């Protein structure tokens, strides 16, 4: 059995899709006549494709050549021809857009599974009814249903980084294992972003307790200013042991570095899911989003959520203008739960 997974466009969603991929890989009813697991390929946009290189259950990753938001019909037909030559038995389309379902259709993959909607039912052979927005299951179950996988059969997502790659990447950025990682960005909007002063106070608490370690801030180019604000709020004596890598790493480098962190303090973000899948201790701050739908998935993860009457609102900006769901979640609540960096690092 040869399966194509059409991947989502968000890093966190890509990580959570691994639960489905892992379940399909282990499903013996999909094994070939030679007793080998099914061969799983992933078609992903450039932003999420690197996630899948760290999964042992993915046979190959095909990077979409399309510009974001554009149809590019002739380019899709050309890409579909390449997929058709791969002779896939089925495709599972994880995003909900029409464009995401076009390529498996153009490639004439015999079985094409996805949620209905967006005028795409006609290009799917097995359209499934989309769960109601008012009763969303956890995201790994949302994806699991597309593969016919029951919740009990869905393991937590797993990412594996080769130790040699981790060591090389640490050396490249002059870091040692055991640092505190912080992911203060919020791509969706400021209603998911813990205040800069709160991040700074937690970083200061860690640096004071771990005299030889660093605090490392991760994010994309859009997070550089906010990360700079956090660094500026640190007490001067501690600032020399804090560094922002926002916009300075590829996603693959960020994953490799994250695997060497002692823990991560983060908003509800893609890197939260990356760290959880790497089995790194996660401290996840939730405000406008729901820890029921997209929690960090490892047994050691800690979730900080005030569950105010107005949350979760799932808005990009606080509709009430105060963001109390995050401001009132104090730095001390998180700092008191930090774990010491491992001895000798």
UniProtKB/TrEMBL annotation:
Belongs to the glycosyltransferase 9 family. It is an enzyme of class 2 (transferase). It catalyses: an L-alpha-D-Hep-(1->5)-[alpha-Kdo-(2->4)]-alpha-Kdo-(2->6)-lipid A + ADP-L-glycero-beta-D-manno-heptose = an L-alpha-D-Hep-(1->3)-L-alpha-D-Hep-(1->5)-[alpha-Kdo-(2->4)]-alpha-Kdo-(2->6)-lipid A + ADP + H(+). PANTHER family: ADP-HEPTOSE--LPS HEPTOSYLTRANSFERASE 2, TETRAACYLDISACCHARIDE 4'-KINASE-RELATED. One of its GO terms (molecular function) is ADP-heptose-lipopolysaccharide heptosyltransferase activity. GO terms for cellular component: cytosol. One of its GO terms (biological process) is lipopolysaccharide core region biosynthetic process. Keywords: Glycosyltransferase, Transferase. Its EC number is 2.4.99.24. This is lipopolysaccharide heptosyltransferase II. SUPFAM superfamilies: UDP-Glycosyltransferase/glycogen phosphorylase.
């Amino acid at each position: 059995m040869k399966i194509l997974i059409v991947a989502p466009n968000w890093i966190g969603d890509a990580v959570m899709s691994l639960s489905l991929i892992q379940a399909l890989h282990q499903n013996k009813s999909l094994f070939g006549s030679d007793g080998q697991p099914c061969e799983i390929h992933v078609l992903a946009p450039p932003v999420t494709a690197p996630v899948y290189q760290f999964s042992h259950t993915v046979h190959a990753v095909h990077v979409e050549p399309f510009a974001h938001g554009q149809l590019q019909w002739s380019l899709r037909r050309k890409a579909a021809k390449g997929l058709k030559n791969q002779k896939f038995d089925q495709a599972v389309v994880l995003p909900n857009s029409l464009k995401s379902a076009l390529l498996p259709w153009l490639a004439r993959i015999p079985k094409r599974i996805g949620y209905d909607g967006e005028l795409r039912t006609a290009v799917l052979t097995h359209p499934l009814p989309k769960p109601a927005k008012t009763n969303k299951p956890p995201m790994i179950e949302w994806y699991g249903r597309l593969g016919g996988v029951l919740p009990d059969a869905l393991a937590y997502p797993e990412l594996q980084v080769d130790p040699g790659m981790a060591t090389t990447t640490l050396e490249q950025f002059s870091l040692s294992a055991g640092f505190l990682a912080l992911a203060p960005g919020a791509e969706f909007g400021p209603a998911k972003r813990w205040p800069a002063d709160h991040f700074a106070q937690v970083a200061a608490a860690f640096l004071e307790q771990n005299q030889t370690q660093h605090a490392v801030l991760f994010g994309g180019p859009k997070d550089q200013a906010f990360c700079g604000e956090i660094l500026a709020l640190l007490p001067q004596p501690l600032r020399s042991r804090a560094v922002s890598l926002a916009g300075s790493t590829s996603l693959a480098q960020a994953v490799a570095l994250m695997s060497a962190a002692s823990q991560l303090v983060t908003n509800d973000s893609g890197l939260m899911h990356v760290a959880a899948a790497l089995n790194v201790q996660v401290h996840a701050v939730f405000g406008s989003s729901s820890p029921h739908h997209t929690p960090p998935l490892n047994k050691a993860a800690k979730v900080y959520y005030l569950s105010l009457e107005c949350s979760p609102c799932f808005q990009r900006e606080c509709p009430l203008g105060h963001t109390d769901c995050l401001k009132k979640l104090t730095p001390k609540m998180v700092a008191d739960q930090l774990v010491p960096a491992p001895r000798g690092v």
